[in-house]
Amino acid sequence: MRRSWRILGIFWLAALVLWLGVTVLAWHAERSLGNAAVITGYALFAVILSLAFFKARKRLLVLPLGTVREWMLGHVVLGAVSIPLYFQHTRGLWPDGRYEQAIAFAFYAVTLSGIAGYALQRLLPRRLADIEGEVIYERIPSEVAALREEVEELVLKAVKELGSDTLGRYYEESLEWFFWRPRFLVGHVLGSGRSASWIRGRITALRRYLSEDERAYLVRIEELALRKSRLDAHYALQSVLKFWLFIHVPASVLLVLLASWHLLVVNIYAR
Amino acid sequence: MNDAQLMERPRRWDTPFDREMSDSVVDGLLARPEFASIDAGRFPAAAPLRGILQNDCRISTYAPGDIVVREGDYGNSAFLVLSGSLRVVLPPGLPRQVLGRAPEKKRDAFSVLRDMLTHSRIPEVRDTGMYRAAHALARGSSEDRDSLLRVRDPAGLFGPGVDPAADPTRIPPLADAFKTGVLPAGTLFGEVAALGRVQRSATVYAESECRVLEMRWQALRDIKNRDDTWRDRIEQGYRQNQLRTHLAEHPLLAGIDAKTLQMIADRTLFETYGSFEWNVGFKSGKRDERPAPESEPAVAKEGDYPDGLLLVIGGFGRVSSGLGHGARTLTYLREGDHFGLDELLEAWKSGADCAYETSLTALGYLHVLRIPYSVLAELVFPKLAPLAKRLIDSASRPIADDAFLEWAVEQRFINGTKTMLIDLEKCTRCDDCVRACADTHGGNPKFIRHGQKLGNWMVANACMQCVDPVCMIGCPTGAIARTTGGGVVVINDLTCIGCGTCANACPYDNIRLVPIRDKEGQQVLDPVSREAIVKATKCDLCASLPSGPSCERACPHDALKRVDIQSLIQRAAQLEA
User: Fold this and answer.
1) CATH code of the domain covering residue B372
2) A9 touches chain B (CB under 8 A)
3) For the segment B18-47, what is each residue's pLDDT rounded down to a tens digit?
4) Looking at CA atoms only, how far is residue A82 from chain B in angstroms?
């Protein structure tokens, strides 16, 4: 932990020096009637390329270039530096040209998704850790199916053994929907507890119509429903943790491509 | 994908230790007094004595100066001197640089990258031709051995002016600084390391040309289990050799001269508590219904009076003290730790009896040396430095802080030296660790990011590189073994027969049996039973990579660590202090 903070401090210092250097050079270029945008543009492009290399670094682990954790810290710091560099380069929030607007769109998409992703990565793991049990994302559908099977067998058994179809009818009308697939995803992401209160409400509503023997089955059904709710919470939170990358990564690729073409065009027309 | 390739199911002796062990060589061995006295009728038909000698043993010839075993190595063989003489270097042994340890074979970045780009997308693909080649390979004909004749500084080893190669039939004695003992023909050595799954305690080299029978530990185990003479011989040797080594190496006895140490050794008792096969009951869940530590074999009880100091030389012990209606785990002991010193020292200082302040029970099995109080009072305590901390001091920590330790002990995670511990409050479930593992192992991850959870901590199903690797017990081919340098437990895919002994023995379910496919992606089946050929697979700690475990390096959030639980607990205690 302490090592991470030390590395982060070094990276911030290096980033500050980089940004100050670029700013001074740009200011100097402007004073000499040069084009400051060339300096900020090249610096920004270099930063974007470095940021994009993070993904490759994760796969090329064998290269002795530090740990992915260190790269992650560098990625965050460089990402932050890219924001002032972008505004120094564009001198505004939204450029005029269509092509530049496309670049701006990609840049904002990458930046905002990156900030959101960073925040989510800090917040959601804590929420996940608080949920009882741990489950691998890819296994959730099969676990949900297994729970559904278990609860349906239980309901059938209750109906057969006790000769009353109240539990069966209620399952079909209400609980089947819940056990069919992950539910209350937004509620789980927001941490509203809506899923648990929905289960409690349904169980309480049914209890008055059941015999003592049926209530014993209902207790078991409630346990399974709460287990399902925990699986749903895992599904919702882990989906969010994965989903933001589906914006961040493609937008990064688009940004690199657009910025590369922009650099090429600018250089050709500058001559 | 739908077609299947047929391959004969691998069996125990498909890959013998040495193909040159002919019938006449085995006849010669059986005529020797060491084997002639064994009742061959006590061996089962599936693993007869002759078969063991033929398939699990090999004869090697060593030239003067050749190193047979090196101190610190992990080995799975014992040795019987057939002819000639060897010398064992007694403690403190030879300096590391003199031993000229061969560097571990590490893969370079290029080969890893090439594998990453070219590996099959189909899981668990093997080059089945390699198995046939391995079976056909004759072993033991040409080995590149390290020799004392090739050390960098012969003058430092043999003394100035001595030419170690002057007499080609015999190597001169080492310089006075090194103490050695002779191992004549008929001596058995290396059995402690082979059976006890511990490091070699001494270096052995050939003094003259000699022939040595190298026995896989499976051979030693089978013979020991069926012949009383061999069993007595092994147990006696274990007691005699190890006792002195353990005493000499223990920090409490550091600085004590050899004569005094011998006096202590003569009066020290060797005791074992619990069961070696602790993993069987642990894994099956058939445990004593009484709560721990009441259900564990008691070594010392709180309130009883100690009669000797207990030095732990193997296994694990739980130190506990009564709290309310139960018992509280204060710490656990493993090799190198001791128990009872606080009370004995106080008794020696005050002259009054002092009862045990804590209890000690065996977690699985526990080997201890008991040094009687009279010996301590006479030879050790007068020279002992004041103690910094007492075991009972741990009882002052808040009860709420016990959870992690109790969990680690209860689940036996204390056995791990490289446990994959994941902080779930940091882990984003991105699976970069799993991908990194797959990338470095031909597309096949060697662990599952899932496991036992306590609060925000999870111990994932990855090989923990146990202090007591019970997975190594019973492997019929010796496919699972420790690497020579780092002592990492690895599985040799070429000699693994997929019997599942290791996977069944692992108490933590960290070894998996995977059905293999050939290069075309076809399943490999046994031609007779039509069942899939499987191989055991587990985390090898990326032993072949210079950079260490990929999973740990790949974690972007510092959530995954490979840790020794004991050092983690000690660090936490220090932080709290």
Assistant:
1) 2.60.120.10
2) no
3) 888 899 999 999 999 999 999 989 999 888
4) 20
